[in-house]
């Protein structure tokens, strides 16, 4: 498969994937911006906005679970590269720096999530 077939372009408010959907792909932002959001009817709560070089969808590609949030293009001509499960496993096994980058990002995201959960639970 050529790299061009792994690149998709989206316009503002285009949904890349929806919370609850299945998918075994990780996405890397090549251009533009992507919002990761929780949807409640017509209401949208943006968790984070990602830009060039950042990635999303890693939990589904790692464990095969359903998507935990919705990914929405937030800029015109937002381009993302899809990395399927087989390519992800190959990259992790052959490129230790890639694996470390994924682990670092997951750790930071978990810490941020824990901080929010702690504050919500009434911690200081």
Automatic annotation (TrEMBL):
Q: Which CDD domains match?
A: CAP_ED
Q: Which SMART domains match?
A: cNMP
Q: Cite the SUPFAM superfamilies for this sequence.
A: cAMP-binding domain-like
Start and end residues of each Cyclic nucleotide-binding domain: 10-109
Q: Which InterPro entries match?
A: cNMP-bd_CS, cNMP-bd_dom, cNMP-bd_dom_sf, Env_Response_Regulators, RmlC-like_jellyroll
| Pfam families per record | cNMP_binding
What Gene3D superfamilies does UniProt report for this protein, alphabetically? Jelly Rolls (2.60.120.10)
One GO term describing the cellular component: cytosol
Superkingdom of source: Bacteria
In alphabetical order, the GO MF annotations are: DNA-binding transcription factor activity
**Signal peptide (residue range):** none
Identification of the protein by name:
Cyclic nucleotide-binding domain-containing protein
- What is the source species? Bradyrhizobium jicamae
């Amino acid at each position: 498969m050529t790299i061009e077939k792994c690149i998709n372009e989206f316009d503002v408010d285009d949904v890349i994937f929806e919370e609850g959907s299945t998918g075994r792909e990780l996405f890397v932002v090549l251009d533009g911006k992507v919002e990761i959001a929780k949807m409640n009817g017509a209401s949208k709560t943006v968790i984070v906005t990602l830009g060039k070089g950042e990635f999303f969808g890693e939990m589904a590609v790692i464990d095969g679970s359903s998507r935990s949030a919705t990914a929405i293009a937030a800029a015109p001509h937002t381009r993302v590269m899809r990395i399927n499960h087989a390519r992800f496993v190959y990259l992790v096994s052959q490129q230790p720096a890639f694996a470390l980058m994924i682990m670092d990002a997951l750790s930071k995201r978990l810490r941020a999530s824990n901080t929010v959960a702690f504050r919500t639970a009434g911690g200081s």
